[in-house]
Amino acid sequence: MNHPSYRDRRRATAPPRLPGRARNARRLSAAAAVAAMLLVGCDTGTPKASPHSSGPGVSLAPSATPSHSRSTFAPALTTAATACTNSSKLAGWSNRRLAMLTIAVPVSETSVSDATSEVSAGAGGVLLFGSKAPSDLGSRLTTLKSHVPGHLGLLVMTDEEGGGIQRMANLVGSLPWPAYMGAHWTPAQIQQNVTKVAKKMAAAQVNMDLAPVVDVDGRNVAPSHTNPDGWRSFSGNTSVVSKAGVAYMNGLRAGGVIPVVKHFPGLGGSTYNSDFGPARTLPWSTLQKVGIPPFTAAIKAGAPAIMVSNNIVPGLGTNPASLSPTAISSELRGKMGFKGLVVTDSLSAKAISAAGFSVPAAAVQALRSGADMVLFDLGGNVSSQTSSIATAITNAVTGGHLSRSRLIDAAGHVLAVRHVNLCS
Predict the structure, then answer these.
(1) What is the secondary structure of 280-336 as a DSSP string?
(2) CA 362 to CA 347: how far, in whole Å?
(3) How many C-beta atoms surround the C-beta of residue 254 within 10 A?
(4) Are 361 and 322 in contact (CB under 8 A)?
(5) Would you call 22 exposed, middle or buried from its count of C-beta atoms within 10 A (0-12, 13-18, 19+)?
(6) Among candidate residues 276, 271, 267, the one with its CA nearest the CA of residue 354
(7) What confidence tens digit (pLDDT) does each residue in 31-50 have?
(8) CA pair distance 407, 413, nearest whole angstrom
(9) 240: nearest Cα among 296, 181, 196
(10) C-beta of residue 277 within 8 angstroms of C-beta of residue 350
(11) pTM
């Protein structure tokens, strides 16, 4: 952003007096310059998405003030110009609008317009359910995105893992189970094949995939009520999973799709499937050696988003990981240094209700724990559920149970993963 220079030309002695008309012109010019300077800084117009921004914390730095300038306006200009960040913009949003940005609304891929009212209210994303996408999904999603307030973009996510976990293979092509990929394909082959699928996903306006699964689980079975992984895992070997997971992640990114690495801190060896009841992971001391390395590798490779599981982690507390500040804020954010988007697994899971939380209450607890976006299942009255979640979040802020700064931080991460710069 360029700023007009303002040069103080006053002398020790008074300058020659100009004719009246010239004096008036100079006064008007000076007034206009001052007004222009005071208006420089945070843009007050409609926020726009910038494909080149880096999200929260991005400031539009002013050009350097000339060394010969002695303007008393220069320091104020620098402060105003650098003050505009996504966080400073979000601070002006209502609690309700911030809350909506942290919610991903479930919708059938054959009827995405069902989420129009939620998207119009500022929902940060939609989660597609189904097994066969309509041929015109792309145009339907383009219409849905047109309802986003401020045209800030929308996270359109789905589960396209491979094997039996594919929502839109009829449109984008099929991938085998990850277990097959890990056993028969090189990392280069995984990345190449995933990129082909991702390009077709992006063409259909789907920009986020809840994959890859980087759980370490070598059980040669289909996923079930008692085992959430099985063939969904690339391998029972930590090194194989780390390499395959990064390859899959990079394949998605190369095709224009945002990967969501899951399910932190690792579901391999879980006692049960948390969708159907309470479940525990392996002890934290074991996960640190076996299950955490694939997440560490993904973070080092630039993972933009991570999903946290609903399993209790022995050694990290008694709440499901998605509701645990120890798991998210202390371990994932703090010790592992992850700075991207943290997404919950579905808060409709039986493991969440078994822990004593309704979906709205779980959403509040997840945000308090460090998550940025909450997911829940398609079923029942989605509109009512979405509204209940947003209300619970806003009430938690008003009541002092969730800090507004944490809500702003979560909303900022949602914008950052879509490269939205509110100051552009």
Answers:
(1) B-S-HHHHHHHTSHHHHHHHHTT--EEEEPSSB-TTS-SSBGGG-HIIIIIIIIIIT
(2) 7
(3) 15
(4) no
(5) exposed
(6) 276
(7) 444 333 333 333 333 334 43
(8) 10
(9) 181
(10) yes
(11) 0.82
